[in-house]
Amino acid sequence: MNIFRLTADMTHLMSVIVLLLKIHTIKSCAGISLKTQELYAIVFTCRYLDIFTDFISFYNTIMKVIFLWTSFSIVWYMRYHKIVRRSYDKDQDTFRHVFLMLPCLVLALLINERFTFKEVMWTFSFYLEAVAILPQLVLLQRTRNIDNLTGQYIFLLGAYRALYILNWIYRYVTEPNYVHWIPWMSGLVQTLLYGDFFYYYFLSWKNNVKLQLPA
Amino acid sequence: ECFHESKDEL
């Protein structure tokens, strides 16, 4: 474990907590894409299939349980909670999951470290996570008003993957034959997708104005 | 290495 990875995991945890706080305290999910939340639940399910078979560390297991539990809770809140679901903008959140999941599944079947069920599912989870934010970014473009919590949530979600890239560089330099192209490429694509969001988020912070994404 | 060694990250 290195400081980059620990900070990355804590940033990821913070992003989930910010979102849960928003949904749980003000009972609103305005501006949040249910599609992205569902894709994240799928990502964690496919990536943590080994949660009961391979024990790596208490930290690893506890974090997996937290990410699984929170991602499904958020989906449950947005779908079934009688107050929260009212603030879900389903007419604007129209990105089709299948357009993201199918190409990722095909790619995982073609490019993986080993052709076993768990390995392909693990690979699929990385490709899917790289593009899972797209429905959310599309929704942001459509719904002009981005409230602070939503902006912070997306910023933290993007920052965690950028920190993971630092972790991968650190491990590549310090650990012999530590090479994992699949997470590296997926993580790079994922971080780049946040590129313009980071740019506008930084501008809104620097000019102290409300976050606005160009149409 | 077997599945989990190379998968120590979240």
Give an overview in words.
The complex is a heterodimer of chains A (215) and B (10). Chain A has one domain. Helices cover 70% and strands 0% of the residues of chain A. Chain A is globular, with a radius of gyration of 17 Å. Chain B has 10 residues and is largely without helices or strands. Chain B has no helices and no strands. Chain B is elongated and about 15 Å long. Chains A and B meet through helix 1, helix 3 and helix 5 of A and loops of B. Chain A: It is a multi-pass membrane protein. Chain A: It is found in: Endoplasmic reticulum membrane. Chain A: This is ER lumen protein-retaining receptor. Chain A: It comes from Vanilla planifolia (Vanilla).
Main features:
heterodimer; A: mainly alpha; 9 helices; globular; B: 10 residues
- Oligomer state equals heterodimer
**Radius of gyration of chain A in whole Å, from Cα?**
17 Å
Number of strands of chain B: 0
Q: Name the helicity range of chain A.
A: 55-70%
Q: Indicate the overall shape of chain B.
A: elongated
The end-to-end span of chain A amounts to: 41 Å
Q: Which structural class should the secondary elements of chain A be placed in? A: mainly alpha
Q: Find the count of extended strands of chain A (DSSP E, 2+ residues).
A: 0
What average pLDDT do the residues of chain B reach?
70
How does the overall form of chain A come out from the CA principal axes?
globular
Strand content of chain B: under 5%
The low-confidence runs of chain B, each spanning 5 or more residues with pLDDT under 50, are none
Number of domains of chain A: 1
N- to C-terminal separation of chain B?
A: 18 Å
Largest sheet of chain A: none
**H and E order of chain A:** HHHHHHHHH
Radius of gyration of chain B over all CA atoms, rounded:
6 Å
Largest interface: which pair? Answer: A-B, 21 and 7 residues
Number of helices of chain B: 0
Largest sheet of chain B: none
